[in-house]
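[Solved] Which block belongs to which protein?

Original post:
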Amino acid sequence: MIKRKQFIPLLLSGITGAFVLACSPSQPSGNNTASNSNSTTNTVENSKGIPIGVVLAQTSNAALLGQEQVIGAKMAEQYFNQQGGINGTPIKLALQDGGGDEQGAINAFNTLITQQKVVGILGPSLSQQAFAADPIAERAKVPVLGPSNTAKGVPQIGDYIARVSAPVAVVAPNAVKAALKINPDIKKVAVFYAQNDAFSKSETETFQQTVKDLNLDLVTVQKFQTTDTDFQNQATAAINLNPDLIIISGLAADGGNLIKQLRQLGYQGLIIGGNGLNTSNIFSVCQKECDGVIIAQAYSPEIDNPINKTFRETYAAQNKKEPPQFTAQAFAGVQVFVDALKAVDQKNKLDSLSLEQLREQLNQAILSGKYETVLGNISFTPEGEVVQEKFYVAQIKMDETGKNGKFTYLK
C-alpha cells in the first residue's frame, strides 16, 4: 500500500528543483553521474545507488516533450527511493541529454553503457533516435525501455528493447473515431506529416489507413520538416480543398505553428494532433488557436489506482495542472525498472551479480513482469511490446486569454 500522507510532503520538496532543472535548457544534464565512471570492474557500483540511465530530449525541437519526461523520471526516482528503493538500496538516475537527433542519442547511450555502467536505459525521446541508438544497447545487452517510442518496429530492434509507450497503430485511430462523434458529417480529410521523423512517418501511415477504413475521402497529403516554421504553402493548398478534418503528425513546435497558421488562414474545421503534439507545452506555441485540437492519449489523470492518485496529486500540487502523458510514461518506465530489479534481487542479491549477469536477468524480469502503474495495468509481450488495457482521447480547451489551456478528456 502506498503511504500517501508520508510521501507527498517529502516528495514536493524535491520536485521543485527537478522541475527547474528539467525546464532549463542551460543545465548540462550529462554531468549527473550515477556510478563510478572510472570503475574497471564488471560489477554494479551501487554505493550511491543502482544506476539507471535516462536519455531524454532536454534541448532541440524535441525539448517540449523531453522536459516533461525528465520531470516524470525524477518524480519516480524520488518516490521509489522513499519507498525503500530496491529492497533497501536506492536507485540513482544517470541523466543524459539526447537532444533531438540520432547522434545525440547515440552519444548518450555510449556514455551510459561504457562509462557510467548503468543497468538499463530509459529513452530516447524520439523513435527516430531509437532506431539509431537502441542497436548499441542491444549489442551490449543492456535493457532499454522506450518512454515515447511509438513507431512501428521499435520492439523488434532486439531482445533487449522494450517500450512502455503503446504503438501508434493502437492509439491513433481513437482520435479519428472521436472526431466523427463530434462531427458525423466529416467526409473530406487532409493529412500533414513531418517527413524527416520516423515516428511521424509511421503515425501518418496509421492515420491515412484509418481514414480509408472509415470510408472517408483523403483529399491531400502534405509534407513538412520538423524544423520548418513557415507552412503557408502547404496550409493554403489543403484549405483550398475544403477539408472537414485535418490530421497532423509532427512535433510540438512545428505542429503548433502549423495549427496556428491553419487557423489564421481561415480553416475552421476539426484538427487532430498526433502523439508528438501531446504536451501542454504546445499551448504557448499555438495559443488560442490550440483550442479544440483532438489528441489520442495513453494516459488519463483519472486512472483509478493508488499510485496514479498519488502521482496526480503530487504533480498537480506543484504545477497547478494535471500531469501530462509524457510525464506519466517516464514515471512508469522508471517504475518498471524498479519492480523488475526487486524481482531480480529476490532471486539473487544484486551485489552478488556481475554487471553482465544483472543486465541479462533484469531484461528477463522486465519482460515477464506485470505492473500496476500510473498508466494502469501493463505487461509486455516476449518481444518487448507493451500490453496496456485502456486508451483515451482528449480535446484541448484554452481559456479566454489564449495563454492557458488543459486537456479535456472525452467520454
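(Second protein starts here: sequence line, then its C-alpha cells.)
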Amino acid sequence: MAPRSPGGPGGPGGRPGGFGGRPGGFRSSAPRPPPTPEQILALAQREHVPARIAKGELEGKMKCRIWRKLHAEEAKRFDQVYELMGQTPGLSLGDAFGVLQSGMTVAEFMARKERTQRKAAIKQARGEVDNAVVAELLSGLIAGKTEVSVVLAERSLLDTLVAEEPIAFTLERTGRLEKLQVVLLARRGEWERLLPGLERDAKLTQKPATVARQPDKRPYSDPRAFLDHLGQQVKLVLRNGITLQLPLMHVGRFDLLLGETGHEVFVPLHALLRFEPVAGSAPATEA
C-alpha cells in the first residue's frame, strides 16, 4: 500500500479549513434576525429610498447608495418627497407622493383626499341598508297608476308615476323629473289630509335651501343614522320649510318612509335639513 502523503487531509500539511482545519467540520454562521419595521423605516428615511430597498440592505442585499446610483431619477423624487415630509409634520409617504404628482398644495391635496374618503364612506353606508321596502312602494304606485302629489321646492304637482330611474322619476304629464328636485311624495289623498295641519318655516318657505350635488356636502346622506329611530315619532324639517311629525316606517338607501302602511310619505334624504326624534316616543312593538 502506498504511504500517505504528508500534505493530504489530516496530515501535517492539511489545507486550512479542510476536515482537519478545526474541530466541528464546516464553518457555520448564526442566521441574521429579520429587520424590524422601525429599522426599515429609519434607514429608508435616512437614505431617502423606498422601504423595500432599505429592507434589502438590512437583509444583506443591495445597499441603498447603490440603488440611488442605479436609479437616479427615482432617487431624486424620493429626495423631494422626504423634503416635503420634513416640512409637513404628520404627512405620510403616500400622501407626499400624491401632493407632488397632483401639483396641488398639501392643504388642497388633503382636502380632496378627505372628500374622496367621505364619498366612499357614504357609498358603503348606503350599501349596508336594504332598499326593498322603498322600491316596493314606488313600484306599487307605478303599477297601480296611483295619482300622487309631488312636492317640489316652490310648488306641487298632481301626476301619476310612470317609471323610476336611479336619478329621476318619469311622470305621466310632467315627463322626466330629476329626483333632486323632489322634496316629498305621497298619494294625493294622504297629502290633502296632511296639508292643513302642517307647520312651516317661514324663511325656508320664502327661500328654500338648495341641494348640493355632492352627497357628502348635504346635511344627511348616511341612511344608517336613522335606523335606531324606526317606529318612533320623528320631526323632519325639509328644505322648503315643511315640517313633518310622523312615525318613521322604513329607511332606504336614499329615502325615508313616514306614516303608516297605505298612508306612506316618501321623503328623500337630500330634502332633509333637520331631524330629531320626538321626546317621549318609543319604537313600535309587534303584537
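Accepted answer:
You had them paired correctly. Confirming on the second one: The chain has nine helices and eleven strands.
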